[in-house]
């Protein structure tokens, strides 16, 4: 009996350590990145009330322009059991049209956590592993202007296999392994670099994604939930990040809204948590569990404000907040359609400008817990930039881009 207990504990901690690196796929698939980058990213949230799904990520992002040839760019996001890669070919289909070929695969990235009314139901949650291959096209409409207007078209094939967790109910039937074919189309004006706390960024974008499944079936308890044969998502985002030149205060505001047709548990919008790089479009609400809310329609407003404390600009404080208006996915409804969260934290950056650390506290104002409404959590974010010296010794709170000319977008997207 003691031996079995030790085995179960070892499995639990092994799954914890591995899943920490793959709570979500790395998000960097927006366009070919022309900047050389070597970044370690780490983020983790720990709730105080109840027990939610693991909320964290850790990976190494490597981007190498002029890989083997001057028009090739290799991008890798690497974690212990998952790799996301893309080979970009500049001007492959014309002077302003780039092509990229992507391949990804590994463990745990397609796992699903069932959360209803603020309760994490481990008996209805399960593990998912997958592989994916895709082709992307990026077309620049305004090559002679400073802020890029880019069209993105991506087609991919995704194979998923599911397995039980240690606490999956014996009567809970898993969904069948399946193949998905996905299409994404978007129009983006501007963009942001893959940093934890960028100094300057701006984006207006609109997107469509279609998900088409080869296997449709019911699963759960007695077939009480289903996998749809097709789902369609439509969303848009407005984002501004800026650093005030005189005060050296940094702020960001964003508005994201989305709707869907024929959504299921695997395609619904999932909101909650406070991890900024957990996906390309993070739907964060501080204080909530990671992906606590499942919605087929939503509007999310988020903001953040940071102030330096020391003359060296190494230390600072930051406050943040989010409010979402949610129409729930059928079967995952709960009282109230408005959810808000607030947070505060201490920011540190090393003198070398390579290390960047945030220690924070968050409160989910409307989160449902056993004691009523309200949930507390703490978190840590860490970024280590191996290219910091190459980019120069700029102050942490000063924008490394000229805020009046937006030259950073040329650096990020330009030729």
Overall spatial form = globular
Overall number of strands = 20
Rg from alpha-carbon coordinates:
21 Å
SS summary, helix count: 3
Residues in helices, as a percent range: under 10%
Approximately what portion of the residues adopt beta-strand conformation?
A: over 45%
SSE pattern, N- to C-terminal: HEEEEEEEEEEEEEEEEEEEEHH
Low-confidence sequence ranges: 1-29, 393-415
Task: Give an account of the 3D structure.
- The chain has 415 residues and is mainly beta.
- It has one domain (2-413): membrane protein fhac: a member of the omp85/tpsb transporter family (Porin, Beta Barrel).
- Helices cover 7% and strands 53% of the residues.
- The chain contains three helices and 20 strands.
- The protein has helices at 2-19, 388-391, 407-413, and strands at residues 37-47, 55-65, 72-79, 82-89, 97-106, 112-116, 119-140, 149-164, 178-191, 201-213, 218-219, 225-226, 230-243, 250-261, 269-271, 293-308, 315-328, 338-349, 355-369, 372-385.
- The strands form two sheets. The protein has a 16-stranded antiparallel beta barrel with strand order 1-2-3-4-5-7-8-9-10-13-14-16-17-18-19-20. Strands 11-12 form a two-stranded antiparallel sheet.
- Strand 13 (230-243) and strand 14 (250-261) form a beta hairpin.
- The chain is globular and about 60 Å long.
- The termini are far apart.
């Amino acid at each position: 009996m003691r031996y079995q207990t030790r085995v179960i504990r070892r499995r639990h901690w092994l799954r914890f350590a591995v899943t920490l690196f793959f709570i979500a796929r790395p998000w960097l698939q927006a366009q070919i990145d022309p900047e050389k980058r070597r970044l370690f990213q780490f983020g983790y949230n720990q709730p105080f009330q109840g027990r939610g799904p693991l909320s964290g990520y850790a990976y190494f992002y490597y981007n190498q322009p002029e890989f083997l040839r001057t028009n090739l760019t290799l991008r890798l996001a690497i974690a212990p059991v998952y790799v996301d890669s893309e080979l970009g070919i500049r001007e492959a289909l014309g002077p302003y049209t780039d092509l990229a070929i992507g391949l990804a695969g590994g463990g745990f990235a397609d796992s699903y956590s069932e959360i209803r009314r603020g309760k994490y139901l481990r008996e209805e949650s399960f593990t998912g592993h997958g592989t994916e291959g895709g082709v992307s096209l990026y077309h620049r409409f305004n090559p002679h202007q400073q802020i890029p207007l880019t069209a993105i078209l991506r087609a991919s094939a995704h194979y998923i296999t599911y397995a039980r967790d240690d606490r999956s109910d014996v009567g809970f039937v898993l969904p069948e392994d399946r193949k998905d074919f996905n299409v994404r189309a978007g129009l983006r004006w501007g963009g942001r670099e893959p940093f934890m706390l960028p100094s300057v960024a701006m984006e207006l974008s609109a997107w469509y994604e279609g998900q088409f499944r080869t296997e449709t079936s019911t699963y759960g308890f007695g077939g009480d939930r289903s996998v749809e044969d097709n789902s369609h998502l439509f969303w848009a985002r407005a984002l501004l990040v800026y650093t005030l030149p005189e005060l050296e205060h940094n702020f960001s505001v964003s508005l994201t809204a989305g709707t869907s047709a024929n959504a299921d548990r695997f395609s619904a919008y999932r909101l909650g948590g406070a991890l900024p790089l957990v996906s390309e479009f993070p739907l964060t609400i501080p204080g909530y569990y990671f992906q606590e809310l499942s919605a087929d329609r939503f509007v999310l407003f988020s903001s953040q404000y940071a102030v330096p404390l020391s003359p060296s600009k190494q230390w600072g404080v930051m406050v943040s907040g989010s409010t979402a208006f949610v129409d729930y996915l059928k079967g995952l409804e709960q009282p109230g359609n408005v959810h808000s969260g607030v947070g505060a934290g201490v920011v540190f950056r090393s003198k070398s400008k390579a290390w960047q650390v945030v220690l924070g506290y968050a409160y989910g104002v409307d989160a449902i817990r056993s004691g009523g409404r309200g949930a507390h959590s703490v978190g840590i974010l860490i970024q280590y930039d191996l290219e910091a010296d190459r980019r120069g010794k700029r102050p942490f709170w000063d924008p490394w881009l000229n805020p009046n000319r937006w030259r950073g977008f040329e650096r990020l997207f330009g030729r």
